[in-house]
Design goal:
Blueprint: H1 6-26, H2 29-36, H3 38-41, H4 63-72, H5 88-98, H6 110-114, E1 139-144, E2 149-154, E3 160-165, E4 175-177, E5 182-186, E6 191-196, E7 201-207, E8 211-217, E9 223-230, E10 233-238, E11 243-249, E12 260-266, E13 271-276, E14 281-286, E15 302-306, E16 311-316, E17 322-327, E18 332-336, E19 341-346, E20 358-362, E21 365-370, E22 377-382, E23 387-393, E24 401-402, E25 409-413, E26 423-427, E27 433-437, E28 444-450, E29 456-462, E30 466-472, E31 478-484, E32 487-492, H7 493-497
Antiparallel strand pairs: 1-2, 1-32, 2-3, 4-5, 5-6, 6-7, 8-9, 9-10, 10-11, 12-13, 13-14, 14-15, 16-17, 17-18, 18-19, 20-21, 21-22, 22-23, 24-25, 25-26, 26-27, 28-29, 29-30, 30-31
Helix pairs in contact: 2-5, 4-5
């Protein structure tokens, strides 16, 4: 029997070494994570300086894009490139690892919140006079997702008052409070941030969850309620310094633990309204009685409304007496809040984006109109009969719809599909599309908001090289273009605090 040649032995040894090296590095991405990522993103991937790296928080970031971010870093953040430290195979392994679900629902309670609660300017320590001259009732907050900032915009001059960094991935609409003195932001990672507009500075923050949906502020400015996907709960904060006050674990009547789809304030009812995502229930939590007398936090109770189906999204009518909610598999249900009864069903296939629906008076009835994320149409509904009176065909599915009491038009985007650069203008009486705008050919047009008097409509160009395009709301002519970094939502003080029928609440 012939002995192996020396060079064959050497080659085999090198292959063995390579395989051993590959096995220890490629097969153990958790070790790579601990070495390179844990310091900024938490040892359990729950987020720290950097965002949480778990599937629930990454669902808008495709894995291919995540590989690019790990390789090249992310501009305007502290995320460095790792392409010079890790091989493409190691980076791919890391990407697979961060998209792996956690083995159990993580704990994030009072202890964790209090450990993530900076208050640089406690309530009452800053001057009560604005540092700038402007109509405080006509200010806009514009969220710029491109580089994680927001712009405070003067709605009379359309000039920025200031531009300020935000937490990563601000999610849901910022909420104004106390006449526009304060505005509250929420990030996908559960960070609630309070900004003092008068003094142009952040005054308090807290991480109220790991994966958050949205927040609501009570009409008296006393409370902030946060809806979480992770953990499964609602968190009540004292609005002054964002101190955590109470946790409402989210579980159905049968004990099924549930994510919270969304929470909204219902000012005439002095309550928060929340929907569970994994149980057919709607919750109402009152923070004041019918006379407006405050209810202590430890005495707030959950009123459970049992539904025929789980709500994915819902809309509160202008009088806050009725809810229209979309259900899984198509269709929608109408719930009377006073009686808690299901009073009507609608045929709304696809996925109507009810949190972006609006209402207006048409003849002798009030109608509700909603875009649809999956179907190319706007459905118009008579709120007296709860019947669909018209389906307006659109060039593609839409996301945002807006109007104003003083405008004859409703505006809706075509956010999804090849015609995403269009903005449609609908006559509110004839229910016909009267104008199709293309603010920036080839770039997504989205999210209209009006000035307080309804004279101007502001459109977002959803692009890194984006802008806010200001239109005369009656002539539909462009007035001004303000460059911005992927501007998404923009929110006017007056329209939000007066609960304008033309904007989301």
């Amino acid at each position: 029997m012939n002995s192996p040649k020396p060079h064959a032995i050497l080659r085999a040894a090198l292959v063995l070494v390579a395989l051993t090296w590959a096995g220890t590095t490629l097969a153990d991405p958790a070790a790579l994570y601990r070495q390179h990522c844990a310091r900024c993103h938490h040892p359990d991937r729950l987020g720290a300086i950097g965002p949480a790296l778990i599937p629930q928080n990454l669902h808008r970031l495709r894995k291919k894009k995540a590989i690019q971010v790990i390789t090249h870093g992310r501009p305007a953040t502290q995320m460095p490139p790792f392409g010079d430290k890790l091989t493409p195979e190691q980076i791919a392994g890391l990407a697979d690892y961060i998209y792996t679900p956690l083995k159990s629902v993580p704990t994030w309670g009072m202890k964790e919140m209090q450990a993530n609660h900076p208050v640089p300017h406690p309530h009452g320590t800053l001057p009560d006079k604005p540092k700038f001259q402007a109509d405080l009732d006509n200010l806009f907050v514009v969220v710029e997702l491109g580089d994680h900032h927001f712009t405070l915009l003067d709605g009379d001059t359309f000039e920025p008052i200031g531009r300020f960094p935000t937490r990563f991935a601000v999610h849901g609409g910022p909420k104004w409070a106390e006449g526009g003195r304060y505005v509250y932001f929420l990030s996908r990672d559960g960070w609630v941030s309070k900004f003092d507009v008068y003094n142009l500075t952040w005054v308090a923050e807290i991480r109220a969850g790991i994966n958050a949906r949205n927040l609501a502020v009570s009409d008296d400015g006393r409370w902030v309620m946060v809806a979480n996907y992770l953990p499964h709960d609602l968190v009540l904060l004292d609005a002054r310094n964002l101190d955590p006050v109470r946790i409402f674990p989210a579980a159905g009547k049968d004990g099924t633990s549930s994510r919270v789809s969304a929470v909204y304030a219902a000012p005439p009812r002095h309550s928060f309204i929340a929907a569970l995502k994994d149980s057919p229930e709607l919750w109402e939590i009152r923070y004041a009685d019918d006379q407006g007398r405050p209810v202590p936090a430890d005495q707030m109770t959950v009123r459970r409304l049992h539904l025929k189906g789980v709500l994915d999204d819902f809309f509160l009518t202008q009088d806050y007496r009725t809810i229209l909610g979309s259900t899984r598999g198509g269709g929608a249900q109408v719930i009377d809040l006073d009686s808690g009864r299901d009073i009507a069903r609608l045929d709304l296939p696809g996925l109507p984006h009810l949190s972006s629906a609006i209402t207006w008076q048409r003849g002798d009835t009030r109608v509700l109109a909603t875009p649809n994320i999956r179907k190319p149409e706007v459905a118009v509904i008579d709120t007296a009969t709860w019947k669909v009176i018209k389906r307006i065909p659109t060039p593609g599915p839409g996301f945002f719809m807006r109007s104003h009491e003083k405008s004859p038009y409703a505006w809706t985007d075509v956010f999804f599909g090849p015609h995403r650069d269009l903005m449609l203008v609908i006559d509110k009486q004839s229910l016909e599309i009267v104008k199709t705008l293309r603010p920036a050919p080839g770039k997504t047009s989205a999210h209209v908001e009006f000035t307080r008097d309804g004279r101007y409509a502001l459109v977002s160009i959803w692009d890194m090289d984006g802008a806010i395009v200001v239109y005369n709301a009656r002539t539909l002519k462009e007035v001004k273009r303000i460059p911005m970094k992927k501007p998404s939502g923009k929110y006017n003080v007056h329209n939000k605090l007066t609960r304008s029928e033309g904007t989301s609440h």
